[in-house]
Write a structure and sequence with these properties.
The complex is a heterodimer of chains A (298) and B (309). Chain A is mostly helical and 298 residues long. Chain A has a single domain, classed as MetI-like (MetI-like fold, Orthogonal Bundle), CATH 1.10.3720.10. Chain A is built from twelve helices and no strands. The longest helix of chain A has 37 residues. The radius of gyration of chain A is 27 Å and the shape is flat. With 309 residues, chain B is α/β, with parallel strands linked by helices. Chain B contains twelve helices and ten strands. Chain B has a ten-stranded mixed sheet with strand order 5-4-1-2-10-9-3-8-7-6, with helices on both faces. In chain B, strand 4 and strand 5 form a beta hairpin. In chain B, helix 5 runs parallel beside helix 8 and helix 8 runs parallel beside helix 9. Chain B is globular, with a radius of gyration of 19 Å. The N and C termini of chain B lie far apart (52 Å). In chain B, 45% of the residues are buried. The chains are: A mainly alpha (298), B alpha/beta (309). At the A-B interface, helix 8 and helix 9 of A face helix 4, strand 6, helix 5 and helix 8 of B.
Chain lengths: 298, 309
């Protein structure tokens, strides 16, 4: 320290040319190394996604055809797509009202004392391995009824979706300016009417976004459907939710287990369809969120 | 109504009703203080133990705490019906805190606690059985920063009446409120436009129109012109003059000239050191001319003559 100060004092001369002095060059070097590492990490993350997509597209593209999408087992995957769509739709119908109500509880009713613990519970729930939820629903519904069913799978997926919807909705509800709640309160209108007519309409874009993201997540979850809804044949479209419903993740799993290389190509093809749907959902939800944020911050 | 009148022996108006929860009714009788409406009758006052006939608010020994911190101590004052009462004083003296406690807007602040009593037409505002939504339905509030809803001009005004069940004659009600807030001529051709497109001064008058659309008894104004330019401020002050008599108005203002221009009576709040920390309290409350012309307390004199820090 004293050495540094003595040197700095000796060298300090404000009339010198403005080049790096003292240990500034070393500090610049460290700064550049850290910057490089940060960029490399970001590039690696993007690269993984690009490689995965490239692999899926290159292997799966040749499997995609009109017959593949529209016919059932063994030539195509139509019933699986329809089935996944139905299971996820039911799951979302269950999860969305619950998730939005939890978010309303967090932002409008819970005091500081309750917000944090409930938030923590939601975050833990979000981190739960899906196999755990699958086993839970298996023991709760499948084992007692001795029957696999689409509705049981939908309930498991709903459990996965609830924390995502709740946290996403909470974030946009927090963006609704507090002075608008105050304005509504000061007019002597009951809270739930303000929520229904002022607060929720302002946040609707964000709620849709959170829901779309959770749909994307649920569509690809494999463990629940593998345990709870994996025995459907898939040669025709099954719509009865109390029966078994063929679905995409289970079909991908089955195809990749098959010995025949044709199956592999089909697994890639089905993965390609799934990843395309998920990417589309993710991107459109982003766009929606940006739009509603712009609207709110006006 | 008759049961309420017997039990609580109030003025011949809805304001005598206790602030208990109940379905909001459309007020059919004229507002108290409206020109032509019968004033509070003398006979009604005799059994009305606590309240002088003209008092809307009676504060007795009010102290307010936020957690452990005391923000206000020992405020006792009466707010008279149909008058404009101004609360002035330096920053942090608790005048806004006091204003917000009049319609329980402080309830949502964590750690808020009040001691003493605030009576509204004789009813303890913080008493048991009092419904805060009902309190605010009768005691409206306009805030420092204009806060219209992100809806059309019409829907801003119509929102509260709709939600309070005043659906009949909604158009007329909106027009009356906008005329009452001296905004009608400026917006009558664009009622469907977003309220966010109005200027700051227009937005604030819209907020006042929104508040008077449900015909409250009292209007609390929290520095309503502090975010506005002098011309818009002038418009707001004219508006306050025109609303005087129809509504009882309590206004917080930093601007002493404004208080002198609009208020019948003025309360001067300041910080007073009690124990270790300075706490806001009411120093002097009197006719506005007296506060500005011949204040009794030297601290009031120092403040109104600009000698205060």
């Amino acid at each position: 320290m004293s050495l540094f100060r003595r040197r700095a004092e000796k060298e300090f001369d404000p009339t010198q040319p403005l080049v790096a002095t003292g240990n500034l060059s070393r500090r610049h070097f460290v700064s550049r190394v850290i910057q490089f590492l940060a960029i490399a990490a970001a590039v690696a993350a993007v690269a993984v996604l690009v490689i995965v997509i490239w692999a899926v597209v290159s292997h799966g593209a040749k499997a995609i055809s009109w017959t593949f999408i529209t016919t059932g087992y063994p030539t195509g995957v139509g019933p699986y797509l329809v089935g996944t769509f139905e299971i996820v739709a039911i799951a979302t119908l269950i999860a969305m009202p619950i998730g939005v109500l939890i978010a309303l509880f967090l932002t409008e009713y819970a005091g500081r004392r309750w917000t944090r613990p409930v938030q923590l519970v939601l975050d833990v729930m979000n981190g739960l391995p899906s196999i755990l939820i699958a086993v839970f629903i298996y023991i709760l519904i499948v084992a007692p009824t001795k029957k696999q069913s689409g509705i049981a799978a939908a309930i498991a997926l709903a459990i996965i979706e609830v924390p995502l919807i709740a946290r996403g909705t909470q974030e946009v509800l927090n963006l609704v300016p507090s002075h608008q709640r105050e304005a509504a309160d000061a007019l002597g209108v009951a809270r739930w009417r303000s929520i229904l007519t002022i607060i929720l309409p302002a946040a609707v874009g964000g709620i849709v976004t959170a829901t779309l993201l959770s749909v994307a997540r649920a569509a690809g979850e494999t463990a629940p459907v593998l345990l709870i809804d994996s025995l459907a044949k898939g040669d025709s479209i099954q719509l009865n939710p109390f029966g078994q419903i063929p679905n995409v993740p289970v079909r991908i799993f089955q195809l990749s287990e098959e010995a025949n290389p044709e199956g592999f190509t089909e697994a890639w093809g089905l993965s390609l369809i799934l990843i395309a749907i998920i990417l589309a959902l993710g991107l459109s939800s982003r766009a929606l969120l940006n739009r509603s944020k712009r609207k709110m911050s006006r | 109504m008759s049961i309420d009148d017997q039990t609580f022996d109030a003025q011949p108006s809805t304001n005598g009703r206790p602030l208990a929860p109940g379905r909001v009714r459309i007020r059919t009788e004229p507002l108290p203080g409206v020109i032509g409406a019968p004033a509070a009758t003398e006979s009604a006052t005799e059994s009305h133990v606590h309240v002088a006939p003209e008092s809307v608010f009676e504060a007795d020994g009010v102290g307010i705490f936020y957690g452990k911190k005391q923000a206000l101590i020992d405020v006792s004052m009466r707010v008279r019906r149909g008058q404009v009462t101004a609360l002035i004083g330096p920053s942090g003296c608790g005048k806004t805190t006091f204003l917000r406690s009049l319609n329980r807007m402080n309830d949502s602040v964590s750690g808020f606690r009040i001691e003493g009593q605030i009576r509204y037409h004789g009813h303890d505002i913080y008493g048991t059985g009092v419904d805060t939504v009902e309190v605010r339905r009768r005691i409206g509030m306009v805030f420092q920063k204009p806060n219209p809803f992100p809806k059309s001009i019409f829907d801003n005004i119509a929102w509260a009446p709709r939600n309070l069940g005043m659906r009949s004659g909604l158009k007329e009600r909106v027009e009356k409120a906008l005329r009452g807030a001296a905004l009608w001529d400026e917006v009558k051709d664009r009622l469907k436009d977003s309220a966010m497109g109005l200027s700051g001064g227009q937005q604030q008058r819209l907020c006042i129109a929104r508040a008077i659309a449900i015909e409250p008894d009292v209007l609390l104004l929290d520095e309503p012109a502090s975010a506005l330019d002098p011309i818009a401020t002038g418009a707001i002050e004219d508006l306050i003059h025109s609303l005087k008599g129809r509504f009882t108005i309590v206004i917080v203002t930093h601007n002493m000239q404004q208080a002198a221009r609009v208020a019948d009576r003025t309360a001067f709040f300041s910080l007073e050191t009690r124990g270790e920390k300075p706490i806001g309290t009411l120093i002097e409350f009197d006719e506005t001319e007296k506060i500005f012309g011949a204040p009794r307390d030297p601290r009031t004199r120092d403040y109104v003559t600009g000698r205060f820090g």
